[in-house]
Design a protein that fits this description.
Elements (H helix, E strand, L loop, with lengths): L1 E4 L2 E7 L5 H10 L24 E9 L2 E10 L2 H20 L4 E9 L5 E6 L6 H8 L4 E4 L2 E4 L5 E2 L5 E3 L7 E3 L7 E2 L5 E10 L8 E5 L1 H8 L12 H11 L3 E6 L5 H5 L30 E3 L4 E5 L2 E5 L4 E4 L3 H7 L6 H12 L5 H14 L3 E3 L3
Parallel strand pairs: 6-13, 7-12, 13-15
Antiparallel strand pairs: 1-2, 2-3, 3-4, 5-6, 5-7, 5-8, 8-9, 10-11, 14-15, 16-20, 17-18, 18-19
C-alpha cells in the first residue's frame, strides 16, 4: 500500500510472515491515508528470522523517485503493525521538519466548516480516547500529530487509532470500524486546547483561556522539530494569534468533552499580538575584559515584560530583572553599567547586589550572556 502521511508518501511492502488476510486488515485500517498512486515495483522486504519472522519495508517516495528504505522486523504481526505506525509518523515528521508546525495532539474538525481543534496532550494521557469519543460527533483528523502549514491549512492524518487491548502491543484500529466521522477535504486550524485529564476532577469540564506566556511554554515541549522552523518562537506566537489564543481543559471523562468543546468551533477574531520580537544586539567590535555581552539565541519573544528565549538546547523564561540585564548586554557593559541600568528602570533594594549576582550567574550558566575575561 502507498500512504500519505501529512504530505509525505510512503510505500509499505509486506515481507515474510505476513498473511494476505493480515495485510488486507491493516490496509483497511489505514484506508483513510491511502494514496491512489500506483505501487512502485522493485521494493522488497527482507526475510525474517526465527526471533523476528514478520517483516515489512517502508519506502519514502519523493515525487516519482524512490527515497530511503527502512526495513522493519518484529516477533508478531501486532508488534509489526505498531512499529509501522510509529515509524511512519516519525519519518514523516523528519521529512516535514522546518516546513510545518507539528503539534503532538489529536484533532477533530467541524464537519461543515472544516475548522480544526487541536487537542494537545502527553502520550498516555487520553488523546486516543478523546479521539474515539469526539470522532462520533466531529470529523476525525488524527489521534497523533496535527501538521499545520504557515497559512493555517491542516494536513489531515486520519491514521488507525492505536488502542490498548490488554496485549503487549497496541491494536491498530480503523476509524471506520469505530464509526468515526470523516473530516472535510479542506481543513484549517481554528483552535488549540491543552487537555488535562484529572481522575480527581468532579463535575463538568472546565475550559479556560491560558495566558500567552504559559501557552507558549506549554506548547513548545509538545511540538515536533519546531526548532527547525525559521524563528520558531515567533512562528508559534503567530499561530496562537491566528487561533485566538490557547485554552486549557480540565476534565475527568472523555464522554464529557463533546458538549464542553463545541463552542470552541464558533467563529472568533484572531488575537491582537500580545508579544513582540526584541531587536537584535547592536554590532560591536572586540569586547574589553571585564565586560558582559549578550549571546544571540536562536529566537526570542517578549510577552508582558518577560522574555522567552530558545537557545537551541532549551527554552528559557526570563522575568524580574533578568530581561533588563539581557537588554543591557546587547552591547558590552560592565557590572557597574548593569547596576546603573537596573537602578534607572527598577530602583535598587538593599540586597540588590545579591539579586544581580544570582541573575547574572544563572544567565551565564544558560549561555545567554558571557563575561569577557582577560
Amino acid at each position: 500500500m502507498i500512504l500519505d502521511v501529512f504530505g509525505t508518501q510512503f510505500v509499505v511492502a509486506w515481507g515474510s510472515g505476513v498473511t494476505s488476510a493480515q495485510a488486507a486488515d491493516l490496509g483497511s485500517a489505514w484506508s483513510r491515508c491511502v494514496n491512489p498512486a500506483p505501487l512502485l515495483n522493485g521494493i522488497r522486504a527482507e526475510e525474517g528470522t526465527d526471533a523476528k519472522p514478520f517483516t515489512a519495508c517502508l519506502t519514502r517516495v519523493d515525487g516519482e523517485s524512490v527515497g530511503s528504505h527502512l526495513q522493519v522486523a518484529a516477533g508478531s504481526f501486532e508488534e509489526l503493525a505498531e512499529l509501522i505506525s510509529s515509524y511512519l509518523t516519525l519519518r514523516a515528521i523528519d521529512a516535514q521538519a522546518g516546513k510545518l508546525t507539528m503539534l503532538h495532539a489529536c484533532g477533530i474538525a467541524d464537519p461543515e466548516s472544516g475548522r480544526v481543534l487541536a487537542l494537545v496532550a502527553k502520550s498516555g494521557t487520553g488523546k486516543t480516547t478523546a479521539s474515539r469519543i469526539l470522532g462520533q460527533s466531529f470529523g476525525y483528523v488524527t489521534d497523533e500529530t496535527i501538521a499545520i502549514q504557515p497559512d493555517g491549512v491542516v494536513r489531515a492524518y486520519p491514521k488507525p487509532l492505536s488502542i490498548k487491548n490488554g496485549g503487549l502491543f497496541k491494536e491498530q484500529v480503523s476509524p471506520d470500524g469505530l464509526g468515526l466521522l470523516e473530516a472535510p477535504d479542506a481543513v484549517h486550524i481554528h483552535g488549540i486546547a491543552l487537555l488535562n485529564r484529572r481522575h480527581d476532577w468532579k463535575g463538568e469540564p472546565l475550559v479556560e483561556k491560558v495566558p500567552l506566556v504559559d501557552a507558549v511554554l506549554a506548547l513548545i515541549p509538545d511540538t515536533s522539530s519546531q526548532g527547525r522552523i525559521e524563528r520558531p518562537l515567533q512562528s508559534l506566537c503567530r499561530l496562537i494569534d491566528r487561533v485566538g489564543g490557547v485554552w486549557r481543559v480540565e476534565y475527568s471523562e472523555a464522554e464529557d468533552l463533546t458538549g464542553a468543546l463545541a463552542h470552541l468551533f464558533e467563529p472568533r477574531e484572531p488575537d491582537d499580538a500580545g508579544w513582540s520580537a526584541p531587536p537584535p544586539a547592536a554590532a560591536f567590535g572586540e569586547v574589553p575584559p571585564g565586560y558582559y555581552v549578550r549571546l544571540n539565541p536562536q529566537d526570542v519573544v517578549e510577552i508582558d515584560g518577560e522574555l522567552i528565549l530558545l537557545t537551541g538546547a532549551e527554552v528559557v523564561r526570563l522575568s524580574g530583572i533578568a530581561p533588563t540585564i539581557w537588554e543591557l548586554a546587547g552591547a558590552p557593559v560592565t557590572m557597574d553599567g548593569i547596576v546603573r541600568g537596573l537602578e534607572t528602570r527598577h530602583g535598587l533594594p538593599e540586597n540588590y547586589q545579591l539579586l544581580v549576582d544570582a541573575a547574572i550567574s544563572e544567565m551565564t550558566a544558560k549561555r545567554l550572556i558571557r563575561l569577557e575575561r582577560s
